[in-house]
Write a structure and sequence with these properties.
The chain is built from seven helices and six strands, in the order αβαβαββαβαβαα. It is an alpha/beta fold and 235 residues long. It has two domains: 41 residues; 192 residues, Zn-dependent exopeptidases (Aminopeptidase). Helix 4 crosses helix 7.
């Protein structure tokens, strides 16, 4: 009788252990992910700006691919990627149309001012302007590169974080470049321009047009955003 009671207690303890382990597993699978999501992105708003649009097609690749179309595809993918991670996302455009209204003289400035108003209206934490690059030279260039407003330390810090992530992803050794850019200069928050790749490079153009690469690259942008935010908090 004593042995039976003893084994019943042992069995009961074993059941408790299994139940505890199951609870921990469920938490790690679901609860911890939600926690990571909320602590990394809660309250952050990101403006995703698809460069060009409408009659302003931007760079055109040798195969006829327009930068404005790729910019829009990447901006939408990036927005969805950020939203899934808990960020609030605001788009400057979600269609192929530009923001200039009627295509008359001065349309480019009207377009840029419209983007500026969108940014100012939502007071975001970050602005990411999505573009494609071009280089005319003997040796074709490839890989993503980040641009920021020269003299703005916050923009530079964000650009450097993104560029480090991109270089790790591609194996390139590009540096983030400072200059004078409307979307960085005229917006009252941390802003960068991400040139996703070179449309002057036929091989890279073909890669940029694939759904798999677009999804993967937008995940890398997310990784750079989280890297920057973690650096900002530690700083």
């Amino acid at each position: 009788m004593i042995c039976v009671v003893k084994w019943q207690r042992v069995a009961f303890v074993l059941v408790l252990i299994v139940l505890c382990q199951l609870c921990v597993t469920v938490y790690l699978m679901f609860g911890s992910r939600e926690s990571d999501k909320s602590t990394s992105a809660m309250g952050y708003t990101v403006v995703v700006d698809a460069g060009h649009g409408g009659i302003d097609g931007g760079v055109v690749a040798a195969d006829g691919t327009k930068e404005s179309d790729l910019n829009l595809a990447y901006a939408k993918q990036l927005g969805q990627t950020l939203e899934r991670s808990g960020f609030n996302v605001v788009y400057t455009r979600k269609t192929s149309a530009g923001l200039y209204g009627i295509a008359t003289d001065g349309f480019k400035r009207r377009d840029m001012l419209a983007r500026k108003r969108i940014v100012e209206a939502c007071s975001p934490n970050l602005v990411i302007s999505v573009h494609m690059n071009k280089y005319v030279g003997a040796q074709p260039r490839k890989g993503p590169q980040v641009f920021y407003q020269k003299g703005d330390d916050r923009d530079k810090a964000f650009a450097d974080c993104l560029q480090r992530v991109f270089n790790d992803f591609t194996g390139n050794t590009h540096s983030a470049l400072g200059g004078d850019y409307f979307m960085c200069r005229e917006t009252p928050c941390v802003s960068v321009i991400v040139e996703c790749g070179f449309l002057s490079n036929a091989e890279e153009t073909a890669l940029l047009k694939t759904d798999d690469y677009r999804a993967t690259f937008c995940n890398e942008i997310l990784r750079g955003v989280l890297y920057y935010l973690s650096e900002e908090k530690l700083g």
